[in-house]
Amino acid sequence: MEKYSKWRDSGTGIQPFLQPVPARTQQTAFKSVLGAVKSYIVGPVVSVMRLASLALTVVADTITNTIGVLLVVPSIKRKYSQCTRSVLARLALFIMGFYSIDAKTVGLQRGRRSGLKVRKVEVKSGDLIIANHVSYIDVLWLVAKYNPVFVEIDNASSMVQRISMWTALRAPALQTPALLQASNARTLKSVTEEARLNKLGPVVVFPENATSNGRALLRLLPMFEEPENLDEKSQIHVMALKYPAQSFSPAYSVGSQFWHLFVLCCQVYNSLVVRILEQDECPKVKESALFCDADMDPVNLDEAVREKLLQLSRLRMTKLSAMDKRDFLVFYNKRKTGYRSNI
């Protein structure tokens, strides 16, 4: 659309913020009628039933969290939280039509000996999970798999603050804050150390700091530019998430989040593909200039993460950033007559 051409990346020609629209195909009259019945009659009924089921999982999460507060032994509390949150998150995904999620560990190195088994990735508390951000569904899958700690990033300083799962789920619908409040900003290292000490799980970083529509990557924030963010004990894990879709896409970048969820639940099934980079190929903090041996060439962690994420996701990198997404949302919402909220 011409009115949004300002946010079309000049280098790639990709518009990464508008919701993906399925390609138009010629259909027979029978298929058109069948599609209309599914979209306007069967789909909404199924969606209402699914949304009611999701509401019950929210109630269950509230109850289990209340019980968890009463537990005083940290190790038991963590195991309890991990079990209940993971089960409920996976149940929520199943209700939304993500019956089977294709998650696999892959290697990128060419010339790998045929038949050589890819080593399974072991993610520990205090490790860093770095992934692209396409939808609030990303958050649910990460909770179901790892029950991690989520952070929000300051666009100027790359300082972070911890946020809850619910805040992370709502974040794609809200304007990315340009700056964090100084009283809440912390170094990434302090968060990973806290997570490791208290066994809170891995720490998830979305370096794009906003959702794209899944067609390209936004410019990544330089998370490792400041030495204060480097934690030598943290392993970096790189992951790429994609949502193959023939009609309505689970990718969410703009518009009403509730309406997106409603239409998503109208579909019979939804697909999510996750590619996890083999641990041996992930960038390592100990190889950065701050920690590497004098006789070794230091690794630029930000550049290494960028390259791995590009290869793993098989997407192109745009020059647009989270701040461009912020400006886009302001313009988009003003254009929508009667638009008041992203709820």
UniProtKB/TrEMBL annotation:
The chain crosses the membrane at residues 51-73, 85-101. The keyword Lipid biosynthesis does not apply. Keywords: Acyltransferase, Lipid metabolism, Membrane, Transferase, Transmembrane, Transmembrane helix. GO terms for molecular function: acyltransferase activity. GO terms for biological process: lipid metabolic process. This is Vacuolar protein sorting protein vps66. The gene is vps66.
